[in-house]
Specification:
Rossmann fold, single chain, about 350 residues
Length: about 350
Amino acid sequence: MVTIKEIANAVGVSSGTVSRVLNYDPTLSVSATKRQAIIEAAEALNYETPRNRNRGNGSSHAGGPSLSRLVLVHFLESTEELADPYYVGVRLGIENRCKDMGTEIAKIYHGEQLPDQILLQGASGVIAIGQHKQNEIDWLQNNCRNIVFADFKPRRNDLDCVYSDLNESTHMLLDDIAALGYSRIGFIGISGPADGLSIPRYGTRGQAYVDWHKRRGLFSPELLMLGDVADTGQNLRLEAGYSLAKHVLQQGTRPDIVVVANDNMAIGAYRAFQEAGLSIPDDIAVVSFNDIPVAQFLNPPLSSVRIRGEHIGEAAVELLVERLAGRDYTKRVIIPTRMIWRESCRHP
């Protein structure tokens, strides 16, 4: 397990500063550059072992197709990415694999309008990170032949993508929670995108929660707490988790355990429950998704489904190289998740 001291030493700051950044302390005064360095160091160190495995410095592609220039198209704004370290991990996976191969990377972050097509000129291919709306997918296809989506499965069969199956992961998590004796299971998340073409109405995890409960005749609408519609995922944040957790506590009989859509929202939920004088997990338990580095440093440490963001990024680069080598059929790669049990709930 990476430690706060290791992160502090890597960045050249105090352990206290690292702790406050990772826990999103709003009173901390630190530059955006230093904050970014801390978050990226936390992600990089957390994945140090798998990233340092022997990959032959890209020699597996020696003499093969050249990925000379890659354009990375992000569904978040640059500042929003830092608010969700999971996506920093996806980007680091792409960047480190490209570094092995000597590939130049250009980055396009989300904006109010579609980017200028000139930004894609001269690119060998594009990796699009996260949820993209249909008009954005069409723009990419119109301006680049070789495209791979990372951490997103478009509802089409003609696009390469690499992702984790969060529907299956949510069903497995709920099976485990029920086996541990929890009966009133709540959910905190967000609604799906307005165009309805990318993910289900409740989001993939929320929809899986609803389906799991309905199949067992256990669905209680008051236990489902959803934030505003997420066109890009930018409201999967601490503030939303805090607000929705407060609503959970206003519903009368509170749940035994709450499943939260991601760790950022779980941090907000922690604050709301602790402000209300509740003990985690004795009064209410919490589980989440992503397993960002801060999850292990919360009090109590947070149980979370580990989604291997860096591995998703690496696999996306490999898919793009295959396309350049002449693969003419669509490929979808699923990176399995892993449940990391900690003290925020009962566990096997």
